[in-house]
Amino acid sequence: MRWTRSYIPTLKEAPSDAEVISHKLLLRAGMIRRLTSGIYTWLPLGLRALNKAADIVRKEMDEAGAQEILMPTVQPADLWSESGRWEKYGKELLRFKDRHERDYCLGPTHEEVITDLLRGEIRSYRQLPINLYQIQTKFRDEIRPRFGLMRGREFLMKDAYSFDSTDEGADKSYMSMRDAYTQIFTNMALNFRPVEADSGAIGGSFSHEFMVLAETGEDTIAACTAWPKCSFAANVERCAVLPQKADTSSAESLPMLEVDTPHAHTVEDIAKFLSVNKNTILKTLLLIADGKPVAALLRGDRELNMIKLKNLLDVEELDFANPEQVTRHTNAPVGFAGPVGLHDVKLIIADHELNITNDWVAGANKKDTHVMHLNLHRDASITQWADIRNAVENDPCPHCGTALELKKGIEVGHIFKLGTKYSESMKAVFVDENGIENPIIMGCYGIGVSRVVAACIEQNNDANGIIFPPPLAPYKVTVINLDPKNEAVTAKADAIYAYIKGKNLEVIYDDREERPGIKFKDADLIGIPLQIIIGGKSLEKGFVETKIRKSNEKGQINAENYEKEFDALYEEMLSMWK
Ligand code: ATP
Ligand code: MG
Q: Can you give the pTM of this predicted structure?
């Protein structure tokens, strides 16, 4: 493609509302333009990258035995009422009425539509398993659309759904998708981790998120430092923290002692006031779980994990108590809660890490007062010891015991064993070998195709622009003609361009009458993996210049017999991404 015939509106500066690097570079490289909040137009260069991502996904899905379909964007409310999600889904679901006053929504996902499709078709176990997928535009009215393509309202997703007659079959379908996803993100040359997304992180897990590792990621994952020997990685919110060895020296601990701590409300204040380390202080958090007060005990420097506590208590609603409720249960203003002497708090949950010592500083449930030498086994009545905190750096890996490290990630894919959630509520059944009717066992598998493009750029960029990995690059090579008015230069550039095209490599030919500086800047900005630069001076000396975008390595190849040297250079560039 000639640059003069294509539409690549590059910009010197990114609009000021672009916060993250991928958003800035996508705008500056002329790949996308914003229509309105969270909604973007794909320009030619951007669309080429998006299509690359979609094609890689499509190939591996087909390989794994899934078949492509295309479902509608507009979905009737009736189906969503059947699954119970018309009420539950919340404001992300964009709802509207047609001229007959019937309710509809724009599809944020397609479980309802596909379950409706299959329940009309499937009768017998003989028709299963089936795996169907689509690559289609989704709409979610996100509360805070941001970071450009990363969290849009309209975005491109690949969603697949598997249907099985047996539990083993469903597990097999799940595993095959997990393998396909691993292949997909490997083929895209992305640095990623499959991450266990279940709460029970030990043992087999049937929900994985695929995370592209990048500093700017919204998610924090705890990953085993023994990678790739141990492949454990989990969303930090869901990463299990193993119990540590208990301190059994309780008999020797000193009697509990009250101390005055005027105006010391926070863990920091107490640590300073008593000159103790934060990890010797026990903090007591008061929460309300389905209307009942609960005390959660943690080491002073730890964070409560609401998801773990909620799962443990098996409640619908869990929230922090307000100051008035705190005073009611502790007889003191906020900041002096402790496990001994609470009023009307029947549930006291201690993080199992608190077992490691029997000598704590804690609130005394009295204004401006704390206690020292608290022994939880001796002085308090703990309802349950459990894992209720967030994992931190150096916690032991739940699989192999090696230290964990925390990394930032961008969720590009999510796979999930659904079971019979939708098939039961929507009555999608089949008749088994014994003539008995059963609900179909389902799985669902998503990839944020447009988010992949953004995540790829977050992971691959420098001060000059995008550094596309070849599999997602809009073009593999750019031929830059530095002097289109010079006949010899143009003849050479045309010839090299024709040669590369002839090899079936996608190539963009910068034939614009612009200053060399502008062409160099644009080539770096749009991030094409290999640059071939033809200029008058070097041509006179018998060579053309080259640059590999990833390493910024400059070189030259013979201007007369460039074929072999170009081929070798191209291979060298590819090998940098292996
Ligand atoms: P998130 O936690 O980021 O909101 P999700 O759990 O809602 O994601 P899924 O419903 O599993 O996401 O959707 C499948 C994939 O679609 C996600 O893994 C992600 O890559 C992509 N995706 C989800 N929401 C958006 C969005 N608002 N913009 C772009 N991509 C998205
Ligand atoms: Mg979401």
A: 0.86
